[in-house]
Amino acid sequence: MSAPIRIELPTNLQVGSVNAYLFTEPEPVLIDTGLKMPESWAALLAGLQAHGVAVADLRRIVITHPHVDHCGQAGVLAEQCEAVIEVADVGYRWLIEFPEMWRKRIAYYQREFLPRVGFSPEVIGLVSGYMEQLVEVYAPLPKERVRPFASDGVLELGGMSWQVLYMPGHASTQTCFYQPETRQFIAADMLLPKTPTPIVERPSHGQSRQPALPIYLQSLDKVEALDIQTVYPGHGDPFTNHRQLIQKQRARIQLRKEECYTLIQNGHHTVLELLMKMYAHYPEQIRFAGLWMLVGYLDLLKADGLIIEKEINGVWHYETRN
Length: 322
Ligand SMILES: [Zn+2]
Fold this sequence. Notes:
Layout (H helix, E strand, L loop, with lengths): L4 E5 L8 E6 L5 E3 L6 H12 L10 E4 L4 H4 L2 H7 L3 E5 H8 L1 H20 L3 H13 L12 E4 L4 E4 L2 E7 L8 E5 L4 E5 L23 H14 L4 E4 L8 H24 L5 H8 L12 H13 L3 E6 L2 E6 L2
Parallel strand pairs: 3-4, 4-5, 5-6, 10-11
Antiparallel strand pairs: 1-2, 2-3, 7-8, 8-9, 9-10, 12-13
This protein binds zinc ion.
The site of zinc ion has 8 residues, from helix 2.
């Protein structure tokens, strides 16, 4: 049996390094690629070479989810090998149209999401400026080389059949890969040593925003039910005991959700006010990084029927039901 070989790639993002995984037999297949940047390229080449693989040898490049740290370098690889690039049907459009999709998300954040959160135009400008930079670490992909697979299908990797499992929450486009005989789980950013952020996605036309953290918790239940020996996460070291980690992360979410509820009871009504309280331990300039979890706690409290959301002067206000 062969296990995925981890190749750790540096990023310039807050998340730290990202993992690519390599299978060398029966054909060289790479899972995820890292960002398009020189340090990441050097680390990838070194990692491949350490296992006797040159870029030109790669036959397939599989993308777990079209976030830039996982797919940004795929276009660079595609120029230097003949590999087919594979992504789940749910991620196909994002992968091939990343810059356009990303700009649409930025526009949604600028016009709808961030103003309702209560951010000032200045902060909205800072956040969108940061987001705009991320297009630069994505290399355009040749569309004709990209082949979608079914998000409930099967992938052959390392001479074994892996179940594709659709796992939305961190991203609505995310798939994980599970190998039942060897109990290996390629987790993407579904299960990480540190709870992944439930990213707010732009709603489809005419629809309301999907509550990402409640969806993430449903996916987490599915992962917990799997019989897993080793988890190969998108960030951080591979690990065992996935159920222990899941219980810990769920307990933490529950605790933070209760803290959020107490703050609302005590008169903090907007997302911005809650963010300043809930993430007081973060330096102010990166406090917005807590936004996705916080919106998630609010989505959970809404789903529990404990709070109601009102829009006042274009800003969401939360109040307890009692
Ligand atoms: Zn990631």
